């Protein structure tokens, strides 16, 4: 059983749902990224997605694109992200998942990428722009290294959904809204039906992301999904840290770090009903 599978098994036994925050590595710098990952783990994040900054992030909206640009301008590159994972791994209980685009993985070498991820301490990989028809090597690398290759599923035909999830590893990442990442005011009215249609084709846990930005969203999704992914809303908080650091205001930067962690905790709370009752 992989670490991610064990995470969902543990949560399922207590009726809890996975809280999965996303951060871009190196935004606003690698030192702060390490602090935030450890901080998110302390407030109970179950899985932490770590975005590898990329110059052409097609699946991401303006908030995460800006975070990626800040990281790249600060000099963060692929080896730095692996080193970040290696650095924080001994200090966190959460599973760590790398979110990256296909081109950097192919440049690194697919098998080599998964192997390096495994050696650093990562537990999963998400490649949003890698189509099913080109994913055979990544699937094989995931199985060989024990680093789950986690598929993204968007609303599409049942036949297509079945093919995508059939070879999934770790969990299935359901895209809550078509288009790029970014906080939406309201969730799709038929999101629960869409998740149910995915669950018909897989025994793997199903997590929902893209557009999730409020505790109310997390509470709704937690009623029918196994996990909630929050990205843009957290990266927006990271941008405030960057602004404070750029202004040379260290106390404000510290306050903004704490604000991010507290915001994440507010999103996590609805997913842990048993702990709220305790």
From TrEMBL:
The keyword Amino-acid biosynthesis applies. The gene is trpA. SUPFAM superfamilies: Ribulose-phoshate binding barrel. GO terms for molecular function: tryptophan synthase activity. This is Tryptophan synthase alpha chain. It catalyses: (1S,2R)-1-C-(indol-3-yl)glycerol 3-phosphate + L-serine = D-glyceraldehyde 3-phosphate + L-tryptophan + H2O. PROSITE patterns: TRP_SYNTHASE_ALPHA (PS00167). The lineage of its organism: Bacteria, Bacillati, Bacillota, Bacilli, Bacillales. NCBIfam families: trpA (TIGR00262). Coiled coil: none annotated. Pfam families: Trp_syntA. It comes from Tumebacillus avium. Pathway: Amino-acid biosynthesis; L-tryptophan biosynthesis; L-tryptophan from chorismate: step 5/5. InterPro entries: Aldolase_TIM, RibuloseP-bd_barrel, Trp_synthase_alpha_AS, Trp_synthase_suA. The alpha subunit is responsible for the aldol cleavage of indoleglycerol phosphate to indole and glyceraldehyde 3-phosphate. It is an enzyme of class 4 (lyase). Tetramer of two alpha and two beta chains. Keywords: Amino-acid biosynthesis, Aromatic amino acid biosynthesis, Lyase, Tryptophan biosynthesis. Belongs to the TrpA family. GO terms for cellular component: cytosol. The active site is at 49 (proton acceptor), 60 (proton acceptor). Its EC number is 4.2.1.20.
